[in-house]
Amino acid sequence: MVGMLVYGLINSAFFTLITLGFSLTFGISGVANFAHGAFYITGAYLTWQFVNSLGLPYPIAIGLSVLVTGLAGAALYWLVLHRVRGLVLSEVIATFGVGMGLLEFYRSIGLTGHSYKLPTFIDGSVEVFGVYVDYQRLIIIAAGAALVLFLWFFTHHTRLGLTFRGIAQEEDTALAFGIQSDRTAMLSLGMGSAFAALAAITVMPLSLLQVEEGSHILILALAVGIVGGMESVFGIIVASLIFGYSQIIVATYFSPHYSMIVLLAAIILVLVIKPSGLFGKFKELEERV
Amino acid sequence: MATREKGEKGARYRKERLDRGIKARSDGIFALTSYREALYLLFPRTATVIGLLLLPLILDEYWTKVVVITCVVAVLSLSWDFIALTGMFSLGQALFFGAGSYLAGIFNHYWGLPPILTIPMATIGGGIFSTVLILPALRLRGIYFAMVTFVVPLILVRIIEMSGIFGGVEGLSALTPMPNLWVACYLIIIALFVCLFGFRRLMDTDYGLVLKGIKSNDQAVMSGGINIYWFKTQALFIGAATGAFTGAFMTHYYRFVGLPAFSMDYTILPIASTVIGGPGMFAGAMFGAFILMPLTEFLRAIGTWRVVLYSFIMVVFVVAIPEGIFHYLQRKYHQFERWVKTE
Question: CATH number of the domain that B140 lies in?
Answer without folding.
Answer: 1.10.3470
